[in-house]
Amino acid sequence: MASPPQDLLDTLAARLGPKGFTRDPREMEPWLVDWRKRYTGAAAAMLSPASTEEVAEVVRLCNEARVPIVPQGGNSSMAGGATPDASGLAVILSLRRMSRIRSLSPESNTAVCEAGVILSNLHEAAAEEGRRFPLTLGAKGSATIGGLVSTNAGGTQVLRFGTMRNLVQGIEAVLPDGSIYSGLAPLKKDNRGYDLKHLLIGAEGTLGVVTAASLKLVPAVGSRIVAWVGLASPEAALSLLRLLDERMSDAVEGFELVPDLALQLVLRHVDGTRQPLQGSHAWHVLIEATAPAGSPSPQDALGEVLEAAFSKDMVEDAAIAAMEAQAEAFWRIRDSISEAEQKSGAAAKHDVSVEVSKMPRFIVDAAAAVERRFADVRVIAFGHLGDGNVHFNVQGPDGASNWLKEEAPGVTAFVHDLVVEAGGSISAEHGIGQLRLAELGRLENPGRLNAVRAIKKALDPNGIMNPGKLVPLA
Ligand code: 2HG
Ligand code: ZN
Q: What is the pLDDT of residue 391?
């Protein structure tokens, strides 16, 4: 790998113009550190092409000169996936200027978005046409389509609509040699063998640069009901979800588990949040149910299920949001957990999945094992219980400044061993990035690891695409 020679930098500057090229340290600074401020990198330049052709040229030139490229969207990776290393050899390839929604068709229920489209902008554009892009997450105001595709993002509505992989119908990308793969046609059936689209989804920019995607839209929501429920255990929460499945089938699209500790952190650290229920409960669940326009609101059905759950001692208390503002307030609590946790101190972050039915036991047993094994730590396991995915974060002792560096890796290895023992995954949603690279190398099945390395080598023989992420070195 090489740092960009001056003549390459001159060529790139001339080709991309002042809006597309900078070496100004002040302009680059915010993009050299990850969202959680764990990784600080350096870059020789930041390139911001405005078209797929410009991306292709940048990649071709960098490949010829063996210059590493770090693709970047909204820079909201939870795993350091978009931060260059500290060597300063790499260039950041920002897709943020490619922010056009090329088309949005209610007839075909498809939106073709460039990589730099911000998720909430797509939400708004779809709503104007009576449609909805159903994937959403806390970082929707900054996360971009390219990043969401490249990390196979999840979020809070996966229960019903799946992850990004389920919503991407076609892809346009620039491959590491600078060639353009034009696969945007939203074909329902396409059986030509290896699927490059699926290879690029979740590849974290290691196999090329996603420049645009055709995305599936669904009908706009006619009505939605949001409820906050207090209950005794994750087991009770899963029983409630099963009851909701039985009685309301597809109407339930959000089901998020919140431990009391996470709620308390939000109430303490996030302005304007209020206790959602009167009493205190060890666990909470946020439920969202929707109905399309023209169908009856799911409010009565949800009320009946919650009544039934009371009578079975499954839930302790519940509040159905009477107005949209209250529904938003409930979601705000849920979406602020990450921020509150960050404000309250260092945490070893884990993003794990096990089989859905095993998750309640896993949460309880693994938390007890961690808290027995490590002094003064606190487990905060929250999130997407219905997907079998929780963020099993472990907070260090108050005021222990070196904890993250010295103790957290041991905690992480301990947690990941428990996950592997339970047949689960150490990366359910956020990806591998830099954060989990060593752990993937330690724990991954050798056959799969060989295949991953072989694919990387075949498509990116010079190793220029987002080095140091996702693919553990042999
Ligand atoms: C969430 O579900 C996000 O809120 C972030 O995936 C989780 O901070 C985290 O660990
Ligand atoms: Zn999550």
A: 98
pTM: 0.96
Q: Model confidence over 396-416: pLDDT tens digits? A: 998 788 999 999 999 999 999
Ligand 1 atom at shortest distance from the alpha carbon of 334: 4
Give the residues surrounding ligand 1 with Cβ less than 6 Å away. 78, 138, 337-338, 349, 383, 391, 393, 429
Residue 23 half-sphere exposure, CB side, CA atoms within 13 Å? 11
Q: How many domains does the chain have?
A: 4
CA of 431 to the centre of ligand 1 (A): 12
Which residue, of 72, 94, 116, is where some domain finishes? 94
Work out which ligand 1 atom sits closest to the CA atom of 382: 2
The residue nearest atom 8 of ligand 1, judged by CA position, is: 338
In a domain, 90, yes or no: yes
Closest approach atom of ligand 1 to CA 391 = 10
Q: Which of 349, 365, 347, 348 is nearest to 421 (CA)?
A: 365
Confirm whether 442 is domain-assigned.
Answer: no
CATH number for the domain harbouring residue 263 = 3.30.70.2190
Burial track 56-93 (b if 16+ CB lie within 10 A, e otherwise): bbbbbbbbebebbbbbbbbbbbbbbbbbbbeeebbbbb
Ligand 1 atom 9, closest CA: 338
Residue 97, beta-bridge partner list: none
Contact assessment for residue 425 and residue 353, using Cβ atoms and an 8 Å cutoff? yes
Structure confidence at residue 325 (pLDDT): 96
Length of the chain: 474
